């Protein structure tokens, strides 16, 4: 997993040319690391290996060296550091942050340990594949910082970083465009509020990521357009999702592909209850899931767990599910296919092909409500008005084969009350 693919972002332009239609252009930094040769080391700005707070040195290095030298690399050399002062690194372009050291959170202040804001032509990476964060989240669960937030940045990448047990979410991408996230290992606790990657913006590519936690694996937030999410291993994770979708949702042209989910909550869930706007032109293909609680779930399944928002519901249209093979723990208790749409705003163009979802108990139901499209017996064709929930009792799909176990699957998640080991 931890192959160092420092050059991949430059290859991605080529891949795009061969048919990554949902991306609108190249992603990643505009210039290679070889043109970011001015080394700005934290050791020259008050930092030291073993430091009890590397935060001020990172900020000083950024202000006094990165901001005044185009083509620079902020360097945190290999070694262990503690951090208790959070930093916002704002407004630089043509730069890199090379994190070869490993940073442990020691303060419970909220916010984000590192915010990168309005960066352009930027690369955040570890050259030795040892760089990352330990949050010891069990010490301040949901009452401490998140690790990292990329805010409205363009032409950037984050790769080869280890993230272990953030007190809250691990990596958040907020808006921006042309980002690439790859070769990441994220280990959160087997508990809610431990999101792996939450992403919004346009033309972002997330690939080759493994997430172990009990909340979102890689989740799309609004607004989002032209994203490709592929080769994701959700190891005892909450699973993939869209949402929660709210008022004025604007999500389009998304592809999820080659997603493997072992255990946890769901293979894919679109979370919404009320609200407005749209989610359209989405393809979810080549999903394998094993022993999830929920399977493929569209909209409104959150009815019971999410307070209804103002608005008649988010319009879902042209959503394709292709080549799925998976099972849920108990397919009668929780339908492995549940297309539950808003009666005020029925879903249209929901197309399932070669979707083989089953139950470990050998018995399942599928459910549809106000969903229009094709490919499962409970769905209605056309675009008529709402209909009440239809429950069917299918036999085992002929294309279903019990998905094989992957080496490295976790039998249960990481502890929420003790240290999570660093991979
Ligand atoms: C980001 O890169 C694209 C080319 O891929 C370029 O058109 C755009 O201007 C860049 N953004 C900035 C802020 O330089
Ligand atoms: C899943 O967890 C197991 C146990 O920690 C680990 O060996 C394996 O590498 C993990 N797989 C992924 C993809 O994280």
Précis, in short:
It is found in: Secreted. The protein is mainly beta.
CATH superfamily of the largest domain: Single-stranded right-handed beta-helix, Pectin lyase-like
Total DSSP E strands: 27
Number of alpha- plus pi-helical segments? 2
Radius of gyration: 22 Å
Instruction: Classify the beta-strand content into a percent band.
Output: over 45%
What is the helix/strand order? HEHEEEEEEEEEEEEEEEEEEEEEEEEEE
Cofactors, ions and other ligands in the entry: 2-acetamido-2-deoxy-beta-D-glucopyranose
What is the mean predicted local confidence, pLDDT? 91
For the report, how would you describe the main beta sheet?
A: 27 strands, mixed
Signal peptide: 1-21
Organism: Serendipita vermifera MAFF 305830
GO biological process, one term: cell wall organization
Family: Belongs to the glycosyl hydrolase 28 family.
């Amino acid at each position: 997993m931890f192959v160092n693919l420092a050059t991949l972002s430059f290859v991605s332009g080529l891949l795009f040319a061969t048919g990554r239609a949902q991306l609108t252009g190249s992603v990643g930094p505009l210039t290679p690391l070889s043109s970011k040769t001015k080394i700005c080391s934290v050791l020259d700005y008050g930092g030291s290996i073993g430091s009890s707070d590397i935060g001020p040195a990172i900020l000083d290095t950024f202000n006094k060296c990165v901001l005044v030298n185009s083509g620079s690399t902020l360097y945190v050399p290999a070694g262990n550091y503690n951090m208790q002062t959070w930093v916002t690194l704002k407004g630089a372009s043509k730069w890199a942050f090379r994190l070869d050291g490993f940073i442990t959170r020691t303060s419970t202040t909220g916010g984000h340990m590192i915010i990168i804001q309005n960066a352009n032509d930027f690369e955040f990476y570890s050259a030795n594949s040892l760089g990352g964060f330990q949050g010891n989240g069990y010490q301040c669960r949901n009452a401490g910082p998140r690790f990292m937030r990329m805010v409205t940045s363009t032409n950037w990448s984050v790769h080869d970083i280890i993230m272990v047990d953030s007190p809250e979410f691990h990596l958040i991408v907020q808006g921006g465009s042309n980002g690439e996230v790859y070769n990441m290992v994220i280990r959160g606790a087997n508990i809610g509020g431990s999101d792996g990657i939450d992403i919004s913006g346009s033309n972002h590519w997330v690939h080759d990521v493994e997430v172990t936690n009990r909340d979102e694996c890689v989740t799309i937030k609004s607004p989002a357009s032209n994203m490709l999410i592929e080769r994701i291993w959700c190891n005892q994770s909450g699973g993939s999702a869209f949402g929660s979708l709210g008022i004025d949702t604007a999500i389009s042209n998304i592809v999820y592909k080659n997603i493997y989910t072992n255990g946890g909550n769901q293979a894919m869930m679109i979370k919404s209850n009320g609200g407005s706007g749209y989610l359209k032109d989405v393809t979810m293909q080549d999903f394998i899931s094993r022993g999830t609680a929920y399977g493929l779930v569209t909209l409104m399944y959150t009815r019971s767990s999410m307070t209804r928002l103002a608005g008649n519901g988010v319009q879902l249209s042209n959503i394709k599910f292709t080549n799925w093979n998976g099972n849920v723990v108990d397919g009668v208790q929780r339908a492995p296919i549940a297309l539950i749409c808003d009666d005020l705003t029925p879903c249209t163009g929901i197309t399932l092909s070669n979707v083989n979802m089953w139950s470990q108990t050998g018995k399942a139901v599928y459910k549809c409500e106000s969903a229009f499209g094709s490919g499962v017996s409970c769905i209605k064709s056309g675009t008529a008005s709402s209909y009440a929930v239809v429950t069917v009792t299918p036999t085992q799909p002929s294309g279903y084969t019990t998905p094989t176990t992957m080496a490295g699957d976790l039998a249960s998640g990481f502890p929420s009350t003790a240290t999570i080991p660093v991979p």
